[in-house]
Amino acid sequence: MESQPTAAHAIETVFRLESPRVIAGVARIVRDVGIAEELAQDALVAALERWPREGVPDNPGAWLMATARHRAVDLVRRRETYARKLAEIGRDLETAPPSYDEPADPDDIDDDLLRLVFTACHPVLSPEARTALTLRLLGGLTTAEIARAHLVPEPTIAQRIVRAKRTLAKRNVAFEVPYGPEREARLGSVLDVIYLIFNEGYAATAGDDWLRPGLCEDALRLARVLSALMPEEPEVHGLTALLEFQASRAAARTGPDGAPVLLKDQDRRRWNRMLIARGVRALDRAEATASGPPGPYTLQAAIAACHARAYRYEETDWRAIATLYRLLAVRAPSPVVELNRAVAVSMADGPAEGLKLVDALADAPALRGYHLLPSVRGDLLSRLGRTAEAREEFLRAAGLTHNERERRLLLRRAGECAGVSPADGRSASSAPRRPG
């Protein structure tokens, strides 16, 4: 029998990983994402009651899914107004195992997770509410993590999520993948959500682990399904390419102890060449289907491709990357894009030029409290030999991050400042949000 602490840890870990699938599977039955989340929470409570006594099941994810589905069926049965829908669902609903298979027909998505994304990205919700709700339901992120990812106060995110669920229920939004113009209208929000889910897995905003591979895998799978569903949409292929390139670095981004490895120091022999090849093909499709200038995701994929094509860090075409970031700043202006552009400019034209761009962002409200601003500034100062100032910036960045692995890295860099050579050339990478 499992001990209490072991069972509790297993429950927390499994629920974090499996809750999106449980919510999506149950939402297909009850047709209400708010109720689906409540039923998933009920399954968690049941696990908390039973697993410490009975032991953790061999397949805990399937246990949670079955428990939540049974409760969903009971709820439907108790509601006379849902009698017709229950009959349509069929008698075998209670015992049928959940299916996560991708559809044979790309225009008939049999994927509950993707269906959940499109439902949560309904136009009755504001863009901000769509993103927050989907990250909560599909990404399994807490409100605090979502708030940090968006650089906004936590209560703001909590209000958006509550109001979004109420709006979907009040407007009786169907749990389905739309077709035609309605699908196209939601596409931008869907792409943004998949991108943010990948980012959280690629470099976690909080916790003890630098990577959350499950989120990266979910986001990449959703992007691939979406690219099969909408083959003529260039930005769908652009996003898929970006995620393929970023995922290719995963094995090299942490050391044996789980500590982050900066881009410059990564062993590129560990980069997954199969994923890079998939990224190249997806980027080619994005460029081939585009009828105008490249979109933001295609531009970011092109930046990632520059890194992927360099077999050694010294071979990186930083001038091309700086140019792509300049184009990205026009298509999707944001202080974070400008911060990444400053890194690329520093590598192409020297740290002094990059520092000018970083200092121009010092008063940007969106970067207030954003740890990568002092982190990048510390890097540039260290390369200029201004190590005392650099140390202060790294310490400030360490105080702002909520990820323990990243905090240790920044403290280490602060401690090494006195011995850092201006020619060392360490830099933040052009990853979606984080170095390396």
Automatic annotation (TrEMBL):
DUF6596 domain sequence ranges: 186-286
Ranges of residues in domain RNA polymerase sigma-70 region: 16-79
Keyword Manganese: no
InterPro entries: DUF6596, RNA_pol_sigma-70_dom, RNA_pol_sigma70_r2, RNA_pol_sigma70_r4_t2, RNA_pol_sigma_r2, RNA_pol_sigma_r3/r4-like, WH-like_DNA-bd_sf
Domain spans labelled RNA polymerase sigma factor 70 region 4 type: 118-168
Pfam families: DUF6596 (PF20239), Sigma70_r2 (PF04542), Sigma70_r4_2 (PF08281)
Keyword Transcription assigned: yes
Keywords per UniProt: Sigma factor, Transcription, Transcription regulation
Family recorded in the similarity comment: Belongs to the sigma-70 factor family. ECF subfamily.
Protein name per UniProt: ECF RNA polymerase sigma factor SigK
Species of origin: Streptomyces cyanogenus
